[in-house]
Amino acid sequence: MTSHSRNHKRIGRPPVRLGLEMLEVRWCPAVSVLQVGTELSIVGNRADNDMAIVARVDDSRVDDPPVTAIQVVADGIDFGAFRGVTRIRLNTGAGDDSVRYEAEGLTSMPPDFQADLSSGHDTLTLEYRNMNLTARHSVNVVGGSGDDETSINLSNVDVNAAVTLSLGGGTGADEVGIIIVGGKVGDGATLSASANGGGGGDEVGIIIQDGIVGDGATLSASANGGGGGDEVGIVIIGGSVGVGATLSASATGDGGDDEVGIIVIGGSVARDASLMLSARGGAGHDDIRAQVMFDPQPEPPGLAAMLMLDVRGDAGNDNIRATSDVSFDTHRIDGGTGLDLAYLTVGLLPTIGIEETIIVEA
Length: 362
Ligand SMILES: [Ca+2]
Ligand SMILES: [Ca+2]
Ligand SMILES: [Ca+2]
Hints:
Blueprint: H1 3-12, E1 32-36, E2 39-43, E3 50-57, E4 68-74, E5 77-83, E6 87-91, E7 98-104, E8 112-116, E9 123-129, E10 131-133, E11 137-142, E12 149-153, E13 157-159, E14 162-168, E15 175-181, E16 184-185, E17 190-196, E18 203-209, E19 212-213, E20 218-224, E21 231-237, E22 240-241, E23 246-252, E24 259-265, E25 268-269, E26 274-280, E27 287-293, E28 306-312, E29 319-324, E30 330-334, E31 341-349, E32 354-361
Parallel strand pairs: 2-6, 3-7, 6-8, 7-9, 8-11, 9-12, 10-13, 11-14, 12-15, 13-16, 14-17, 15-18, 16-19, 17-20, 18-21, 19-22, 20-23, 21-24, 22-25, 23-26, 24-27, 26-28, 27-29, 28-30, 29-31
Antiparallel strand pairs: 1-2, 3-4, 4-5, 31-32
Bound molecules: calcium ion (3 copies).
One calcium ion binds at residues 44-45, 47, 49, 92-95, 97.
């Protein structure tokens, strides 16, 4: 290329101007909160996120019927109130996250709740207070990997609908708990509560205190330790099972050497009602306890109701002890394979105090 043509090109090119452009100020919180239609999505990042989600009656407005507002505060930032939400989807992302969810005094149905706590050692507590659940409602929590603590408390909730609670710890040593105090399952309604530890040595528990299962209603509680050596327990204290109603409780250790227990203390079971209790060790050397202590007043359960007790050690060398102050219509005590030791003590008529003891060595 000649020097002439180079000069020619330089002349024809427009001058380049360099300059600085102002960057807009961007607000980048670690947690994103977005409502699309009736779904509220809350997503954390890789850091340890701290979230508080509160559902309560929106008292900033006068509505008839009153409207529910979901207030979200995450990592110290107030994201404001969201209305018209029928479902909350939460993913906390990696990191050791802490989430507290409260639904209090609502006059309409709270949003369904789905949470994935992802990796990290996470904590999630859910509390429902002073409200009626009058339609379908579901809570589904997955702890993901890490040692997670998840719990739901249905204190003082009057349940009149089809409600499904499912809490899963995932891998890691988790604590998973469902507590129902004074909950009522209305006539013909259904409450299904399931707590699963997943892999790892978990503590899994369901407590039902003074629960009322209405006529024809169903309350089923299932606690499962999953793989690993777990502590799994279901405790039912007081309460009543109405005419034609069903209360079923199933505690399973699953794989690993587990401690499994079911305890029933007091309460009443009406005629044509069913009480079904199941405790299983699953594979591994398990320690299994089933204890039933009814208050025989005003009517000893078992005389007019269907009572079933199913205790199994499954594979492994298990230690089983089942005691009851009432007789069961069907009871199965089965050590399964392995060298098991099983004791069954049943007071056929507790007022007279006759007892029958069966020792099974397999
Ligand atoms: Ca996170
Ligand atoms: Ca986790
Ligand atoms: Ca686990």
